[in-house]
Amino acid sequence: MSAPARLSGEDAALTPLDQAKQTLIAAGRVLAAHGQGDMTRGHISVRVPGDPSLFLMKPHGFGFDEMTMDNIVTCDLEGRKVAGHAGRHSEVFIHSEIYRARPDVESVLHAHPAQVVAFTATGRKLRPISQPGAVFAEGVPVYTGSIDLVRTPEMGADVAAALGPCKAVLMRHHGMAIASRSVQETVVLALMLDEACTIQLLAEAGGARLCEEFPADDVMKLHDKLNRPAQFGINFDYLHRCALRRGAT
What we know:
Layout: H1 16-33, E1 43-48, E2 51-57, E3 73-76, E4 81-83, H2 92-101, E5 107-111, H3 114-122, H4 131-135, E6 142-143, H5 153-163, E7 168-171, E8 175-180, H6 183-205, H7 216-226, H8 229-248
Parallel strand pairs: 6-7
Antiparallel strand pairs: 1-2, 1-5, 2-3, 3-4, 5-8, 7-8
Helix pairs in contact: 1-6, 1-8, 2-5, 3-6, 6-8
């Protein structure tokens, strides 16, 4: 797991568990600043350091920017809350089932950005017509099982199956789920998927036929550059600094 953003000398003395919580809190600030929350309905999680059978998650009834060291909850791969006094999200099974199916995944996000939901309603495939689109050039599958809340292990398993080996899945008429190697990567991917969907919606709304795409080899070269772990860390740190500045004004 990547180190949390903006560790001070005092923070560096925290336990790995508390550092993971601080990174989750930083992620919440960024997501809230970029309109990913849908009031209290979006949620993000990260595996507990040293114990992949448990994960930390934003609590039910709180916005992304309201996470604290005290209200973050801990859940297991059955979706049960095992620690924390706050409520557990009813859609916890998106997280638990993705973690169960994907040992490589360290962080999961579910959100409902308006542009992403609108894009899922078009039934179109996301295309690499922009740099954010190129980030997902390997493909973004679509979960079509239901528009409803994912409140059962079976529905969560269906979302995980739709995601497959990819880093994002669109959920038709509902939103998106992101699964990645770190909280930082998950957050940046979420913002880039939102931007990719927005750009394609704008381009297609122009009425003209879209230009021919660049050759696949060129797109994949850009894809590989933009998906480097260091890039996610740099951009996450920048986004967190921006969120802190906004909060101070």
